[in-house]
Design goal:
heterodimer, A: 508 residues, Ammonium transporter fold, 18 helices, 0% strand, B: 113 residues, Alpha-Beta Plaits, 4-stranded antiparallel sheet, two-stranded antiparallel ribbon, elongated
Chain lengths: 508, 113
């Protein structure tokens, strides 16, 4: 029997023995103290398991993103997209450890954390039971002592807090990957991921979750519609604008030339994985296991919005585009999940269903809309994460329910729906006003120093060979239906498109 | 000796093969291929935008037959490959100057019977 097991058994025995003693009114001070310590240990253990298991589910969302993004892109770029989705979590881990965590949760001013900045180096007595926790747990009177007080409300060890927050930072960074797919240099993407997680994500995160200027002023975002998704979306939008569209996507005739994804099997499996992962993302954001009512409410709300999001997109695509395009249904499901991420603990289940439904419709309109303005987003990341991150943040105000906010989120503001909406709107504008220009700055810095876009030839041939030296599917004729599935050999089509887009004098 | 090249819908391959074998055709070569005819392919829809798939997957059957078998074989293909809808395919017939069975060196109709 391991040390941990002995301790758990002892804890359980103490709880079982002590209860009848209390009931009979025979508790001695010594027994009471032992019982309190055992109950606290038990609670910390249960909470930590909950936080870490849900964090593992969120980690697994990386697999979902990898499958969705590679499935919705061309076969010739599959290795590249998988490599990006893989390495981005490694980069996020180092970046968030080195600086991101400190900027986000360190004690500081309204703008950024200033203490314990590097490598979680600040003082922290977690699993210390701060005042908020003492209120939940009458057995503990230990006060929090440390420099990460913005997150002292959760009674888990520091490294559990870190890992849970890290997987969220990683999610934000991986959102960018799909939007810039099929044309970005691998190295440039890697550098941007480091910068995003080190600087952009934690600063807006500090405003909202680090007791900064938004969170301290009634702005609410339970699990990150703004903190994670719209920040990732803004960074992705900046990347797309700096990169430009994929060659051949928008013709000189003003028409959109679709570049179909190579595997709807991958894409659908990826969204199932993300849907599952979201049951960690939102319910885990309680960061404590003891309020079962809250966890159940949040999980059902999450599922409800995913379901109505998928249905909303199905109907919207069927009515507006003629067919229930699976890629749209998948985007609609994700849109519902992103939209419910902020309000899941602040709105009723019925409201959650409506929020998801609207998100699904918005996703379809946004995909078509971005193509109209020639913003080339191969996987719909902007429509899902940026647009619906904003919608979800605003929906928290529109559907705000003070009873749910009190009992489920334990973060009630007491504001009316109108007032809460205005607070949310202000937050959306602040986050956009920071995340977008700073991402733009980093993208331009990368463009000027190492370049962002692969060569025209490499884009035609595929980034798999160009960036990584080998193909995802070496046994298949992956170029047969490249560029719009017309079946023309890729090099012939590529040349045709290149000639169409280049002034005659530039052609040798 | 004639060569029959029949371009058909892929899902008709088994029926056409069986019909040809019934007529006494001894061998054939089958190729997966792509092409278009008068309809110039069809359109598909992806994320709200249409695109043209002009080269549609087809199967090409090549069989070299004795002159005596030609008419029966062509009729067999026509009947077995027909759905009555656009895209049923084409049959081309051409003369073959010679044939050799590599293993034995047999020539002409001796090589294909």
């Amino acid at each position: 029997m391991s040390k941990w097991n002995r301790r758990a058994a002892l804890t359980a025995a103490l709880v079982l023995c002590a209860l009848p003693a209390f009931a009979a009114g025979e508790a001695t001070p010594d027994a009471l103290e032992k019982f309190s310590a055992a109950a606290s240990d038990l609670r910390i253990g249960v909470d930590t398991v909950w936080v870490l298991v849900t964090a593992m589910l969120v980690f697994w969302m990386n697999a979902g993103f990898a499958l969705v993004e590679s499935g919705l892109c061309q076969a010739k770029n599959t290795t590249n997209i998988l490599a990006k989705n893989f390495i981005v979590f490694a980069a996020s881990t180092i970046s968030f450890w080195a600086l991101g965590w400190g900027l986000m949760f360190g004690d500081g001013n309204a703008f950024a954390g200033l203490q314990g900045l590097f490598f979680l180096g600040g003082a922290d007595n977690s699993p210390a039971l701060g005042e908020a926790y003492a209120a939940m747990n009458p057995f503990s009177t230990t006060a929090y002592q440390g420099v990460y007080s913005a997150i002292n409300w959760t009674p888990v060890p520091l490294w559990a807090k870190f890992f849970f927050q890290l997987v969220f930072a990683g999610t934000c960074a991986t959102i960018v990957s799909g939007a810039v797919a099929e044309r970005i240099k691998f190295g440039s993407f890697l550098v941007f991921s480091f910068l995003l997680v080190a600087f952009v994500y934690p600063i807006t995160g500090h405003w909202i979750w680090g007791a900064g200027l938004l969170g301290a002023n009634n702005f609410r975002d339970f699990a990150g519609s703004s903190v994670v998704h719209s920040v990732g979306g803004w960074a992705a939008l900046a990347g797309i604008l700096v990169l430009g569209p994929r060659l051949g996507k928008y013709g000189n005739d003003g028409k959109v030339h679709p570049i179909p994804g190579h595997s709807m099997t991958s894409a659908a499996l990826g969204v199932f994985i993300l849907w599952l992962g979201w049951f960690g993302f939102n319910p885990g954001s309680t960061m404590a296991a003891m309020n079962g009512t809250a966890i159940a409410h949040i999980l059902v709300n999450t599922n409800m919005a995913a379901a109505t999001g998928a249905l909303g997109a199905t109907v919207a695509a069927w009515v507006l585009l003629g067919k229930p395009d699976l890629s749209m249904i998948l985007n609609g499901c994700l849109a519902g999940l992103v939209a419910i991420t902020a309000p899941c603990a602040f709105v009723s289940i019925g409201s959650g269903a409506v929020i998801g439904l609207i998100a699904g419709v918005i996703a379809v309109l946004a995909v078509v809309g971005f193509d109209r303005v020639r913003v080339d987003d191969p996987v719909g990341a902007l429509s899902v994460h940026l647009v619906n991150g904003i919608w979800g943040t605003l929906a928290l105000g529109v559907f705000y329910d003070n009873d749910v906010a009190t009992n489920i989120a334990a973060l009630a503001t007491g504001l009316s729906r109108g007032a809460q909406f205005l607070v949310q709107l202000k937050g959306v504008l602040y986050v956009g006003a920071f995340a977008f220009p700073f991402s733009m700055l980093f993208w331009y810095a990368i463009k000027l120093t190492m370049g962002v876009r692969v060569s025209r030839e490499e884009e035609f041939e595929g980034l798999d060979v160009g960036e990584h030296g080998n193909q995802a599917y070496p046994d298949f004729a992956t170029h047969a239906s490249s560029f719009g599935g017309t079946g023309m050999p890729a090099h012939a089509k590529a040349r045709a498109i290149a000639m169409a887009r280049t002034p005659a004098t530039a052609e040798p | 000796m004639k060569k029959i090249e029949a371009i058909i819908k892929p899902f008709k391959l088994d029926e056409v093969k069986a019909a040809l074998m019934e007529t006494g055709v001894q061998g054939m070569t089958v190729t997966e291929t792509r092409g278009f005819g008068r309809q110039k392919g069809h359109t598909e829809l992806y994320r709200g935008a249409e695109y043209v798939v002009d080269l549609i997957p087809k199967v090409k059957i090549e069989a070299v037959v004795p002159d005596a078998l030609l008419e029966k074989a062509v009729i067999a293909i026509t009947q077995s490959a027909r759905t009555g809808r656009i895209g049923d395919g084409k049959i081309f017939v051409s003369d073959v100057a010679d044939a050799v069975r590599i293993r034995t060196g047999e020539r002409s109709e001796g090589a294909i019977s």
